[in-house]
Every structure is written in structure tokens, then in C-alpha cells.
Prior knowledge:
Layout: H1 18-46, H2 57-67, H3 71-104, H4 106-120, H5 124-134, H6 138-163, H7 167-174, H8 180-218, H9 223-232, H10 236-264
Helix pairs in contact: 2-10, 3-4, 3-6, 3-8, 4-6, 5-6, 5-8, 6-8, 8-9, 8-10, 9-10
Amino acid sequence: MSDGAVPPFPPPSRTQPRAATGARQFGKFEGVVAIIGLAVAWQIASYFFPNYLFPTVPAIAERFLEIFSSVGTMLDAFATGGRILLGLAGAFFLGGALAALMARSSLFERYAYPLLSFNQGIPALSWVVIAIIWFKGIEFRIFFIMVMTTLPGFTFQLLDAYRSMSNDLYEMTLAFRPSRYDLLRTLIWPAVLPGILTSWKVNLGNASRVVVVAELVGATGGVGYQLLLQQQVFDMAGAIAWTIVLVIFVLIVQNLITLIETRALRYRAVSERSP
């Protein structure tokens, strides 16, 4: 490139640009305004439609507070959260083991990849039916469903994270003859950590939808079970309140993952981190 020529893309900055900071803060403000706007639109709709279709916002808020004012319903909310985290943890460790085997053996990958792709096409409801036929324990059924539905995502994402590691950087690190522990600590772990955190963010949303289906069919407690009860009595306010509980749980866990990501990847340029 000749002297004075402008590069096609600017290098990443180690500091957050002022305009980007303002845009990110404004994005959070927009989110709050959008939710308030949705609540206002719902309240307006409640004046023109029957209560069983569009209950008022105060009625939904009252039902939401009732969930956490009773020990039984509060335990149902925590039970669903625990099932989501336990199922994701099981799928993560199993997916990590499969990804490691696929990365080390091309022969194993040629057989495992089609099976995982086939598994990815199986709907959650099919796994629910299979789990009910195969297993007696309710909690193990839900755990099995959660693992089977999120396993392909974890495996593929972790494998891609490992293979996206720079080969030149890997060979340069080997020149220092590190031990396996040092190689894992200084190169492989920092390289795959962003992919690990992203896989948790992506699969968290999938798991929250799957667990409701599993609880609708085969559980005697949890958010899905409570939604089934609301449907039987046509209680739309209760259904919306329980849905909000699940959404809040997902948002809290997502923000915790983002907090971990911000702290663990603070050495990276701010523009490379998640918003």
C-alpha cells in the first residue's frame, strides 16, 4: 500500500468509540420504551376485547405477584429454572466430549456428524413422546429431553470454536514446547471461551422453549404445568404472568453470561465483545 493510502477497513480500537457507546446506551433505553409501548398497546386492546382474550395489565401484574407470594407456585418457577440449567449443563459436557473426539479423529467425525445432524431435525415433541415411553421418572424424562434437543447445538458450536483457532498461533505456541496444561491454559481455552459463552446464550433460549413442552406433557409442576392449568380454565392473565416469569429467568441468566463474558474477555477490543 502506498504512503498516505487509506486502508479499506480501520483496525479495531482498544477503546470504545464515543458514538458506539451512545448507541449501546440508547439501545437499552429503546428496549425499555418498547416494553412500555407493548404494555400500553395491550391495555388499550383490553378495552375492546373480552377479558379472556386481553386481560388488563393490572390483572396480569396481580397474577405475577401472586406467583411469588405462594411457596408452591414459587417452587414451580424455580423448578423450571433448575431443569433448564441442569439440562444445559448435561448437554454442554456431553457436547464438549463429542466435539473433542470429533476434533481429534476425522473417522469419528464422519460417523458422528450425520447422527447429530439427524438429531437436530427431530422435534422436541417427538423426544417428549420417546422419553415418556422409555423412562418412568419425570425428572429424568425432562433431563433427557433437554439434553437431546440441545446436544447438537453445543457440539457443533464448540467444534467450530476450536477449529476457528489460528493455526499459525498454534504452531508458534508449540515452538515454546509447552506442557498440555500450559497449551490448554494459554491458547486453547482463551480461543474457545467466546464460542462456549455464545453456545450457552443460543441454547438457553432453545432450552426455555423445550422445557415448557416437556412440562406440559409429562410433569406435575413447573411453568409448563402451570400454563396447562391456565389453559384449562381460560385464564389468560395467569398464562401471561407465567410466561413473563420464564422470560425474566432467561434474561437474568443471559445477563449473567454477558457479565462473565465482559470480565473474562476484557483483554479484547470493546468492539469485539457482545453488546
